Amino acid sequence: MSYQIKIPSCVYGGPGSIEHVNAIIKKEDSKKIIIFTDKGIREHGFLDILTNHFDEMNTQYKVYDDLIPEPAYQDAERVIKEAEDYDGDLIIAIGGGSVMDVAKLCSVLKGATYTVKDLLNDPTQARKQLKTIMIPTTCGTGSEATCNAIVAIPEEQSKKGIVNDNMIPDYVILDANFIKKLPRSIVAATGVDALAHVVECYTSKKATPLSDTYALAGAKLIFNNIREAYDDADNLEAKNNLLLGAFYGGVAITGSGTTAVHALSYPLGGKYHIAHGVSNAILFAHVMEFNKDACEDRLAKLYDAVFHGIPVKTQAEKAQYVIDQIADIVKTTNIPTDLKEFGVKKEDLETLVEAGSKQQRLLVNNRKELSLEDIRNIYLKVLK
């Protein structure tokens, strides 16, 4: 079996690593920068940290912050069209997954004849137009590492990933100072999203030795730091480890791919606008419990890599321990576990089942095939 993995060309990490942005600008000889962010990042002063560097260097820039969480493809097209009139030569995204996904789309759309909708139908036509720098301000989407961009499709009441190697970021800055003041609820949701990435990638049918390396490294960092990062806002070491683990999860995605957790969460985001990390967290343990008999050996190996000093011996016990830890993390970080809290009703069940079953790009990665009845039963577990 041959295999590959894709990774951004240059990655800077550690608290204070934002200082490397000056060297990147000089290296790329950039004169005008397109910055994608959101109003929350601007209000918290994180954008100023970045733009102060450009002001010192007399580098021109324009900020586009009219971005909403979980954007529809029409939202992405609107913001990218606004940036079309600015003759920028480099794109920087400072924000969460939605901000970075739109920036990556802009990197292949600016000056091109195709649209976001065209890429939904045929992502192979995308070609890189501008280089990108990703600065994540959450600790979980992994978007800074992937060639994926996720958008909602309102007419289908679901979400879909646009995947093309040309969207792999060129530079990444993993500066834990940018997540130091992150609200606990966002630490929880994005952290569990990152945990889903590494566990799903490790148990995916498409897992390879390369993706396994990153998935296991990410699993160690996330399992062992997410509670501390959630409990103590000033624990910069835990935050840094979580940020790095999330990046590893993104890299693992490029070599392996997520599975049924993400597949079944997409309709929840597309129809009910439940935050991506939250919808994953709600389903995570239930999907892994369903998958357990098909990937018990992989879960046991993950246990061996992550957990030490716990008196668990059999393969089955190790697999169950990992699933129980996932459920406990969701519980202790106070993520909701019932879809009814988001207005989902049992009469919506069949719509969810149909939409979930269409996520074949991800479902084909799952080690255990899901029938419509299987999907229905998983949703019922979170419709209490």
Low-pLDDT stretches: none
Cα Rg: 20 Å
Number of strands: 8
- State the share of residues found in helices, binned by percent: 40-55%
Distance between the termini: 43 Å
Task: Write the H/E string, N to C.
Answer: EHEHHEHEHHEEEEHHHHHHHHHH
* Spatial shape: globular
Instruction: Report the total helices.
Output: 16
In percent, how much strand structure appears in the residues? 5-15%
What is the averaged pLDDT score?
95
Largest sheet: 6 strands, parallel
Q: Structural class of the secondary structure composition? A: alpha/beta
Strand order of the largest sheet: 1-8-5-4-2-3
Please, could you describe this protein's structure?
- By secondary structure, the protein is of the alpha/beta class.
- It has a six-stranded parallel sheet, sandwiched between helices. It has a two-stranded antiparallel ribbon with strand order 6-7.
- The model has no long low-confidence stretch (mean pLDDT 95).
- It is 52% helix and 11% strand.
- Keywords: Oxidoreductase.
- It comes from Lacrimispora xylanolytica.
- This is Iron-containing alcohol dehydrogenase.
- Residues 188-381 form the Fe-containing alcohol dehydrogenase-like C-terminal domain.
